[in-house]
Amino acid sequence: MIKYLESPLTTCTAILLLSLPMAVTAQTKDKKSAKKPAVENQQLTPEQAELLKQIKERNEIASKLKFQEGHVPLKDGLATLNLAAGFRYLDPAQTETVLVQLWHNPPRKEKTLGMIFPASESIDESYGVVISYVEDGYVQDSEAASINYNDLLKEMQEGTREANPERTKLGYEPIELIGWAAPPRYDKDAHKLYWAKELSLGGDPEHTLNYDIRALGRRGVLSLNAVATMDQLKTVEKDMQQVLTFVAFNDGHRYSDYVAGADKVAAYGIGALIAGKLAAKAGLFKLLLVFLAKGWKLLIVAVPLVGAYLRKLLTGRSKEEITTPDTPDTTE
Predict the structure, then answer these.
(1) What is the number of alpha carbons within 13 Å of residue 80 lying toward its C-beta?
(2) What is the pTM of this model?
(3) Which domains does the chain have, with CATH numbers?
């Protein structure tokens, strides 16, 4: 049985009101005066009034979210989430509400499979784990043990820099890939890959953490992408070790169910997954602006556009032969 939980309201409203300049006025015993607008509301600047309005609207949206706990089926029986206590899930439709209305992401054609959140924090204060799936075929993992992840990082940094002019053209700030927050690791028995990147948006000194998990299946790859600030690294790293165990493909869809000669093989391997092939193809680089309540700061989900470094990973194929992800349509 699926259990639904109401989302708690954030404390943003109280914090804002405490921070606004208010005049101390003498109280009157005149009962008629109680019907007049509050003096402090009259003294709000237009910017403060608009901010307060936005907070109330956001809290109203958040209060209507209905979370699920425990056993959650994904994509018509493709896989299953088995959430531990302390975690909760939002379905794809409500995830779209969070991403677009609360976190101010552009709408996207590609829909997610939902999101996972820690249950102890509000939506605005929490990190979130976006779940998606790309059915590009069976990803061979034979190269996993031989990849030089330091060299791969340099190629990713180069690719990120190459993509920045296009990002700027689309109206977004440039990204700098600082380095690994946690180097890539592949569990060959579980067929799961995870790593974390430290990123900077537009030279902002407050860096962003992008923590990724890829679960390999018979016909494609499940992506779990967590976004947070660097000061949440320890919490996210600890939690993601649990999240890593939550997702599992069902019978008939597992990596071990692959039938050689009958099932499609993906045109890329482990290195390309880390470099951004799957994330870009899934449209995750349209999850651009992640809205955090603290300081009303806009942070970025940094997934580089796939460029020259991806072509290096797909050895034996020329630039013309490679089908690269479409550039996102930001006019939607």
Answers:
(1) 10
(2) 0.69
(3) 65-321 (2.60.120.1690)
